[in-house]
């Protein structure tokens, strides 16, 4: 059958179509058919009954079609009408326009324009583009969703890479079913002695000596699923290092993966070296004064901040001297701090006064730490300037030694007793407070407490008995 358009409908095969049948054919062949004169007036129109969403457009008839076109569509229609008016071939076979009317709705439609037997009339056959526009809108939304997912994936991928490369621990991801390396960081590649790109995709077990095929994977799976935090020991082929491998099993997208952390002496040495460097910088340039002493309290090393507090020119001037030479209460302060630090590991806060090389004194707060090392053991003291705090420090008793009730009892004496008796009672309260504070600071060391208060041991015992403190703790 010949379907070329010039042969499709010749004079011999042309059937005679009645007007009512022709209208039905046109109505069903297009979503909207309009007979338009060259001025743009709608002479007649018919809507496809199979597309009820367009609605009734009878009010368009005998009106200018421009009234129902969007402003951006007018130029397209004018160009077509001008060509027909001048008897020229239309510049395009079809135009796409947007219709609207007083019902505040609009829809896109694609028209093909056709000549008729009347030179003043044009047949416009339109296809509703709303299904196409809706499909395009869905495609655009799907594309935007894909772009968003892709950007989110890139974001997580970047974070994952940054975390993997920033951590000091050598990490390897191993497929739990095949035993092949799926990913690793640079630290792990360095431990295994090869480039990361060359190792990814290879069998993890081939990087170690003395293991049969699949043996390492079985051991890692066993360690990952055990209740105890066990590890697997293996020797690398390239670097001949002994490593402890800690494995953790997890599932992602249905696939099981082992996260393996490689531990070796080399890695620990790198961490220790970095930590040592950072601590050295903190000791040299820190704001707080730091002093290291031997087990007897003799100064070994101090930082610049301590030299500034004590007005000492250089370390050599005080190295080998006792730290007690710079404490207001001398050996009493030093013994209290060292005894407490030795007993408990550290003493968080101890308040006293620091005496400079030229006799001036400064209020300080000291923390002491006992360093239990085989070599270079001793004590570390950190001094913090507390002189500014004295201005705003509350005058409340230390460690709550004097309660509000005791002060209230003294205040109630006003008006009921002579001033001399009130002052005597107040003196007793303060004296008890000082004794309790000294006993507390020295951990009930009566000898040290007596030296701290400037009393003889016998006088201290008399006052302890006076205030009912004699049986508070044991004597040392």
From TrEMBL:
Per UniProt, what is the name of the gene that codes for the protein in this document?
ppsR
Q: What high-level taxonomic lineage is stated for the organism?
A: Bacteria, Pseudomonadati, Pseudomonadota, Alphaproteobacteria, Rhodobacterales
Which InterPro entries does this one have? Homeodomain-like_sf, HTH_Fis, PAS, PAS-like_dom_sf, PAS_fold, Tscrpt_reg_PpsR-CrtJ
Question: Per the UniProt entry, what are the Gene Ontology biological process annotations, in alphabetical order?
Answer: regulation of DNA-templated transcription
Q: Which organism is it from?
A: Dinoroseobacter shibae (strain DSM 16493 / NCIMB 14021 / DFL 12)
Pfam families from the entry?
HTH_8 (PF02954), PAS (PF00989), PAS_9 (PF13426)
Annotated PAS domain ranges read: 156-201
SUPFAM superfamilies of this UniProt entry? Homeodomain-like, PYP-like sensor domain (PAS domain)
Question: What is this protein called in UniProt?
Answer: Transcriptional regulator PpsR
Q: Which terms does the record give in the GO molecular function aspect?
A: sequence-specific DNA binding
